[in-house]
Amino acid sequence: MNRRFEVYQYRQVLLHMRQGETDRSIAKARLLGRRKASIVRAIATQEGWLNPDNQLPEDGVLKEKLMPPERRHSTTSSVEPFTDLISEWVKNGIQATTIWDALRRDKGFTGHYSSVRRFVQKIRPPSHSPTMILDFKSGEAAQVDFGSGPVVLDDVTGKPVKTWFFVMTLAFSRHQYAELVKNQKISTWLECHRRAFEFFGGVPQKAIIDNLKSAITRACAFDPEVQRSYEMFAEGYDFLISPCPPADPEKKGRVESGVKYLKNSFMPLRTFRNLSDANRQLKDWVLTTAGARIHGTTGKKPFDLFRASEKSFLKPLPTNPPEIVEWAKTTLQRNTHVWFDYAWYSAPHGLIGQELWVRAGPQMIQIYHNDKLVAVHPRCTDRGQHQTVTDHLSPPCKAFSEQTPSWCLEQATRIGVCCREIIERLLEHPRLDCLRAAQRVIRFRDTYGGDRLEQACEQALACENIKTSTIKGILQHLMQVESHLVTEPGLEAAYRGLGRFIRPECIVTKGGAQ
Fold it and tell me: 12-19 long-range CB contacts below 8 Å, 24 or more apart?
């Protein structure tokens, strides 16, 4: 029998037969074909259903007798040899297209994809999980989401850029705010919220969101971790953050429908000069086409319902809106800098390897360690830039960064003429970068004193050898000579008469010549 007929239709045919109507009249009334009617009459006669004195059986009995299971096709399906394997894959959640590719690639399967699909549909358990209607009061909630947008020309560079729709839909009235943006960064997410609240003229009690990284750092049905920037923003505007459970977008189905409606109604058959023009057209569309349509669920225009029944229930905007800032957890690198938004910012070198928090405002970058402010920088405007405070560097790095060629020349001038001449000759070497050598010569002053260094430089110039090792050797000899003078006071007069380049071994002591 044709299983497309329902039980109640067979019951109606049986009632006509009990009233004495022929198969021809039943077929003429388009209740059943003559051939099928004859089959039904034969079964009914055998079961005694046509006797007016007998009651017709229950629907279950009629179904069993008149609607037997469909006979199997005589042909064998091409997936028959792989049924066990396919069943195992389906249990593991593998989709039909992947199964088809694997069978063709690894098992030599030559059948069509439709054969695999039909078999998978038969054995796959139904996914009809129960849901409930979510009801919202006026001003109670807004649902927020991003959606893929068109490629448009950037306002500044004039180059094509990929865009995303930011959509905030009020759950009660279905009135929405929409905007095209170039990224989904935290700062963009917060700025779009601010403009949406200003567009509505108020703030809903809570925002129902997805688990995007700009808002939720760790998705969880029970203990989600909220992005610190978003949490502080919500505190400033006094609304609750309500993330959906992971992989459960139905909890914000109204904004999902809003994004789909926007893509199907706003985007087709439109051209945009640039991003600003696209946003101008989008705002007009929201206030006219989208806001003035009759909504399929409420039966009212979203904009009219918003003005009449929801706007007054929104919380007022704060007198002093919170600053749009971004918080990011990071670690201080070995170069004494943290990496944030494609730029480097320094922090005290003693915190290398430790966890820091970066608070990024539009103009300033602040770095915290254990809730204590340790660094402040102006925000970089270009990628790869760095902001460095010299005091944050380790002593060797600080010394190297401060001791520039001009600094070396300045210090050498203070020491003496000979020292400056050596520094000049080092810095003017035609082939070798001798900055470190010049820095070392200047550092000799800390150990041996400026006068001795000037004297050693004079001797080095006389010897035409300005290597740092030579200057250090001369300084050490001078120190030895002076130590002998201290231990042998009587030699001071004799030393005054000696040559400038006297060696310690030539000094005469009380016991005779050394």
Answer: 13/37, 13/40, 14/40, 14/44, 14/49, 14/50, 14/56, 14/62, 15/56, 17/41, 17/44, 17/50, 18/49, 18/50, 18/51, 18/52
pLDDT recorded at residue 501 = 52
How confident is the model over 391-448, as pLDDT tens digits? 999 888 887 777 889 999 999 999 999 999 999 999 998 889 998 899 899 999 999 9
User: What is the token pair recorded at 388?
Assistant: 């460095």
Q: What is the mean pLDDT of the chain?
A: 86
Q: Check: CB of residue 432 under 8 Å from CB of residue 467.
A: no
Neighbours of 377 (CB within 10 A): 22
Q: Which of 218, 198, 215 is nearest to 207 (CA)?
A: 215
151 and 162 Cβ atoms separated by less than 8 Å: yes
**Based on the domain organization, do 196 and 331 belong to the same domain?**
no
The answer to the question of residue 492 being in a domain is: yes
Bridge partners of 356, per DSSP, are 330
Token pair in block for residue 358: 């970066």
Indicate yes or no: pTM above 0.85. no
Beta-strand pair 206-209/141-153: parallel
Helix residue ranges per DSSP H, 274-378? 275-285, 291-292, 302-309
Tokens linked to 500: 């400038």
**339 phi/psi in degrees, rounded to 5:** -105, 120
For residue 219, count other CB atoms closer than 10 A to its CB: 17
**DSSP run (H or E) holding 357:** strand 355-360
Instruction: Tell whether 129 is covered by a domain.
Output: no
pLDDT at 30: 83
Residue 82 lies in a domain: no
State whether 13 and 61 are in the same domain: yes
* Token digits of residue 422: 């050596």
Residues 160 and 229 in one domain: yes
| Statement: residue 58 has pLDDT above 90 | no
How many other CB atoms are found less than 10 A from the CB of residue 445?
Answer: 18
Whole domain around residue 216: which residue ranges? 141-313
CA separation, residue 370 to residues 142, 266, 314, 359 (Å)? 35, 49, 37, 13
Query: Tens digits of per-residue pLDDT, 223-237?
Result: 888 989 999 999 999
Domains: count for the chain: 5
Residue labelled with tokens 């810095």:
427
- The Cα 206–Cα 203 span in angstroms is 8
User: What is the phi-psi region of residue 420: left when phi exceeds 0, alpha when psi lies from -120 to 50, beta otherwise?
Assistant: alpha
Strand-by-strand arrangement of the 386-387 sheet: 337-340, 343-346, 386-387
